[in-house]
């Protein structure tokens, strides 16, 4: 079935408005690139100053063309775009590439970009841009780009979609190990958005991996649908997402009008859909090369062989820092290695196999690498080297890889410790023969981590919300829609209704009812104010802990009554443990995001939390928890048992299902702390804001209370 983007990305005919003979102009390169790419359809240059360009007849205007082309490439200044676009729309041209930024020096509101966007949306025209570099449909020989480019002779297995022009060209044109079937600089996305390009490339038969350079998802619903499609097709996506810092996010707005969005939300989405997030262009290119050129990795971990002891130690340090597991060799592997190695070399992973060198060093190193790869605990292996004089890569290195792969049938690669292999013909040939050559230890390890992460993601079971009593869901939907402030007691009741353990508690409004509550619950107890409008009680001394008897309770109640009023909550004093956090916030683009991690009064300072898209199961909660810095402390705490860590993860899963059911009804929910101790896991404090409170909960309320 024909994709709806076909007129834009694989048109039967193309016109270039502003085609030119001026050296290095956008008009010249737009025409040259179509020819260089081997475009097979009709090409119609439009420029009244020329009779022909590059041996092709040139036309005075769009109305003079012998047919209505499917695609128009605008290679003209911003001051001419609006009129020419109107002509293209009136002729019924279905698609366009807009390279210019659409900015005029003395423009007036509505500004040029707004006017252009309205015309495009009203007409239904498919537009790549504006403020982009166009696209390369290498598989179908359509290069709609107005800038100098390499000759991409062979389409590859990678698709690249970038909001940044340099994010596309900076990878596509820098070397030949990275081969694309399709690449696009989407620019300001006046019409076609990243998710639509992603949907398109996922249908291309040779696509094995997709790279994204993201400023923001302008169509969140479409973005999620495209990620779901990639998940079903088991096609890995690797992404740079800019805007982690406030300054970077602000520059995203000035660059392309894109609000960067909450960075933590993107982490949650990437986690849910198996998107591998990377930090820079080197990592993006390397990870994509590994996904495209290697067979999928099976269970197991990494082995590396070196010709340098110091380099081996560096790799160990970096693997620990990046969290890449190194294989612990089994006894049979160790014995086999010891029979080959010089006696002074330890049979360990990573392995230094060089030592004395000598005439038989090639044979010994090849044998050692094959032995390593046959270890049953190994998933992938790499030979890590420093290139020779003049950046030379020795063919024997590639031979080691081929021999080890043929004997183990596991993926292998060559790693050069520094950059510079991208144009080496041996590196290019090996890479596209299934034996990638990559540069840089940290970049390589990031790639291995991504391979393992995606492998584990594919093995993760799809989780649907557990069945929840619909009457309870309906009850809370009505309650959350009201404008009344939701009390802590009500917030705790919400949790209890959905099966989350809470500290026993009772409301009281007099000394007598407070005493009765304390006796019912049993000392020691906690006393909390329930005065209206106070969201953070500890700030106003509205919480008194560990009240051990009647006399102490009366003194505490009288003090609180005199300052904050008579209404209080009496709750059990939960035994000491580790304070955990579960929360949710509503992202403006993507809806509810669950926050999970270390709780207590230092939550906002320590910030050791993860962000998850609901719903998720206990297993995924546990694997996410283990990635946090404080997990080692949690695991070794004398106050809790490993069984109750899993209990917390089960509660987190229940919480996520509740949020999924009430996704349109809860604005914020903060359960902090949940106390995790030897007895179990109990929610102690909870702050809940329902959708009905959106208009009455002012910023003043939030900042002063």
Automatic annotation (TrEMBL):
Q: Which Gene3D superfamilies match?
A: ATP-grasp fold, A domain, ATP-grasp fold, B domain, NAD(P)-binding Rossmann-like Domain, Succinyl-CoA synthetase domains
Keywords, in A-Z order = ATP-binding, Ligase, Nucleotide-binding
* MF terms in GO: ATP binding; ligase activity; metal ion binding
Keyword ATP-binding found: yes
Q: Which residues form the ATP-grasp domain?
A: 492-533
Under what name is this protein listed?
ATP-grasp domain-containing protein
């Amino acid at each position: 079935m024909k994709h709806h983007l076909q007129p834009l990305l694989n048109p039967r005919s193309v016109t270039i408005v502003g085609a030119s003979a001026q050296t290095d102009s956008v008009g010249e390169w737009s025409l040259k690139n179509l020819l260089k790419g081997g475009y097979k359809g009709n090409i119609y240059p439009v420029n009244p100053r020329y009779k022909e360009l590059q041996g092709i007849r040139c036309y005075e205007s769009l109305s003079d063309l012998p047919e209505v082309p499917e695609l128009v490439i605008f290679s003209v200044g911003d001051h001419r775009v609006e009129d020419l676009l109107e002509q293209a729309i009136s002729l019924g041209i279905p698609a366009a590439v807009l390279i210019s930024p659409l900015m005029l020096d003395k423009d007036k509101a509505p500004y040029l970009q707004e006017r252009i966007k309205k015309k495009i949306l009203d007409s239904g025209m498919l537009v790549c841009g504006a403020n982009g570099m166009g696209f390369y449909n290498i598989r179908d020989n359509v290069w709609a780009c107005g800038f100098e480019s390499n000759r991409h002779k062979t389409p590859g297995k990678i698709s690249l979609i970038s909001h940044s022009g340099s994010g596309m060209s900076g990878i596509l044109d820098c070397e030949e190990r990275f081969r694309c079937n399709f690449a696009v600089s989407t620019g300001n996305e006046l019409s076609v958005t990243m998710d639509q390009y992603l949907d398109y490339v996922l249908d291309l038969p040779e696509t094995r991996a997709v790279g994204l350079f993201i400023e923001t998802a302008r169509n969140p619903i479409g973005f999620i649908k495209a990620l779901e499609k990639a998940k079903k097709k088991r096609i890995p996506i690797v992404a740079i997402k800019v805007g982690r810092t406030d300054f970077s996010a602000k520059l995203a707005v000035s660059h392309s009008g894109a609000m960067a969005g909450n960075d933590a939300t993107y982490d949650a989405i990437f986690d849910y859909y198996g998107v591998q997030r990377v930090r820079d262009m080197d990592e993006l290119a390397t990870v994509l090369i590994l996904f495209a050129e290697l067979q999928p990795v099976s269970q197991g971990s990494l082995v590396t062989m070196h010709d340098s002891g110091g380099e081996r130690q560096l790799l160990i340090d970096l693997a620990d820092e990046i969290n890449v597991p190194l294989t612990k060799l089994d006894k049979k592997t160790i014995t086999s290695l010891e029979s080959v190695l010089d006696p002074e070399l330890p049979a360990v992973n990573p392995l230094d196999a060089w030592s004395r060198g000598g005439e038989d060093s090639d044979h010994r190193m090849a044998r050692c690498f094959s032995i390593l790869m046959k270890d049953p605990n190994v998933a992938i292996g790499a030979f890590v080297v420093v290139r020779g004089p003049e950046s030379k890569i020795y063919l024997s290195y590639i031979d080691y890889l081929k021999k080890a792969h043929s004997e183990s049938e596991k993926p292998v690669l060559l790693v050069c410790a520094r950059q510079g292999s991208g144009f080496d013909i041996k590196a290019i040939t090996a890479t596209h023969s299934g034996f990638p050559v990559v540069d840089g230890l940290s970049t390589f390890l990031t790639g291995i981590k991504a391979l393992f992460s995606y492998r584990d993601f594919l093995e993760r079971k799809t989780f649907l919300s557990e069945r929840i009593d619909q009457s309870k869901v309906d009850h809370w939907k009505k309650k959350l829609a009201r404008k009344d402030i939701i009390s802590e007691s009500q917030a705790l009741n919400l949790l209890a209704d959905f099966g989350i353990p809470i500290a026993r508690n009772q409301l009281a409004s007099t000394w007598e009812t407070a005493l009765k509550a304390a006796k019912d619950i049993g000392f020691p107890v906690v006393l909390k104010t329930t005065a209206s409008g106070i969201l953070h009680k500890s700030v106003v001394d509205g919480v008194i802990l560990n009240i051990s008897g009647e006399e102490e309770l009366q003194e505490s109640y009288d003090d609180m009554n005199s300052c904050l009023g008579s209404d209080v909550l009496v709750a059990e004093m939960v035994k000491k443990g580790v304070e955990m956090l579960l929360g949710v916030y509503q992202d403006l683009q993507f809806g509810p995001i669950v926050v999970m991690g270390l709780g207590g009064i230092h939550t906002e300072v320590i910030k050791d939390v993860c962000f998850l898209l609901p719903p998720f199961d206990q297993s995924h909660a546990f694997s996410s928890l283990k990635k946090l810095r404080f997990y080692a402390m949690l695991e070794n705490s004398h106050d809790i048992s490993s069984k109750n860590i899993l209990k917390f993860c089960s509660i987190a899963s229940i919480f996520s299902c509740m949020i999924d059911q009430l996704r349109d009804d809860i604005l914020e929910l903060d359960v902090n702390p949940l106390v995790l101790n030897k007895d179990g896991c109990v929610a102690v404090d909870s702050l809940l804001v329902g959708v009905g409170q959106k208009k009455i909960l002012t910023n003043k309320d939030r900042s002063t209370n």
